[in-house]
């Protein structure tokens, strides 16, 4: 599957730790940053794939799960460490759910918002993948 769990550089200190994203920590130029918060525990986010964009998901606070599908395999990744990021490359379907109370998911993207890059219907995603 076109994903990767990335360990973010961490500076440990008795006063609190710092995770750093700079230089070549992530394999793309940052074009967009946003975050999900106050997501009800019963809600799902995502529900799409990107044709070109890469995204790095980081649980800044709390936890959530990411359901991933590429048309051949399915995987669930539990996100609960703020020094670990889930890199989702292009052509991977994702759904985020099981948000804990107070969870915050930071998303760093390789592209600006472009609706034409999204596939929002799973059947259309499978059709698209089969044409690649």
TrEMBL record:
Q: Matching InterPro entries, A to Z?
A: QdtA_cupin_dom (IPR008894), RmlC-like_jellyroll (IPR014710), RmlC_Cupin_sf (IPR011051)
Ranges for domain Sugar 3,4-ketoisomerase QdtA cupin: 1-129
Query: What protein name does the entry list?
Result: WxcM-like domain-containing protein
**What organism, scientifically named, is this protein from?**
Flavobacterium limnosediminis JC2902
């Amino acid at each position: 599957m076109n994903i990767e769990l990335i360990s973010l550089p961490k500076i440990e200190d008795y006063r609190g730790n710092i995770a750093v994203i700079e230089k070549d920590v992530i394999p793309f130029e940052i074009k967009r940053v946003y975050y999900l918060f106050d997501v009800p525990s019963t809600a799902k986010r995502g529900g799409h794939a990107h044709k070109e964009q890469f995204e790095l998901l980081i649980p800044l606070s709390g936890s959530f799960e990411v359901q991933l599908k590429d048309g051949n395999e399915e995987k669930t990744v539990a996100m609960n460490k703020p020094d670990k990021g889930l890199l989702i490359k292009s052509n991977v379907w994702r759904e985020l759910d099981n948000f804990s109370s107070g969870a915050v998911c930071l998303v760093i993207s390789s592209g600006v918002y472009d609706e034409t890059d999204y596939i929002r219907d799973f059947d259309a995603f499978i059709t698209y993948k089969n044409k690649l």
